[in-house]
Design a protein that fits this description.
Blueprint: E1 2-9, E2 20-28, E3 31-40, E4 47-54, H1 63-75, E5 79-81, H2 89-101, E6 106-107
Parallel strand pairs: 4-5, 5-6
Antiparallel strand pairs: 1-2, 2-3, 3-4
Length: about 110
């Protein structure tokens, strides 16, 4: 699983402005299977997940957790979820538990 940056910008009015907002494609074996929209605030001490989307045919394979782990390893800052859809409650519950067990921080 790889994250391929599609966009990196810092537009005024964005939720992390003047930090940086990223939109990355999630690729497996050269095929796009989803995307993640996240931002890092100006202080560089928080990573905000705006949207994490995995195509339905690739869900429940651990890709979402892999994306979060990749982002945490790269940036080493707490991951903060901006909005949680009801249909993703189970995923985020598992993510919070696994990250806590690894000593990494996630917040809703």
């Amino acid at each position: 699983m790889y994250l391929v940056n599609r966009r990196q910008e810092s537009p005024r009015g964005n939720y992390v402005f003047p930090g940086t907002d990223y939109l990355d494609d999630i690729e497996v074996d050269g095929h796009r299977v989803g995307q993640v929209d996240y931002g890092i605030n100006l202080l560089g001490d928080r990573l905000y997940i705006n949207m994490l989307e995995i195509n339905p045919t690739h869900q429940r394979l651990g890709l979402g957790l892999g994306v979060l782990w990749n982002l945490w390893r790269t940036h080493q800052v707490p991951i903060v979820l901006l909005y949680q859809y009801t249909s993703s409650d189970g995923f985020w519950y598992r993510a919070h538990r696994r990250f806590a067990a690894a000593g990494a921080e996630t917040r809703a």
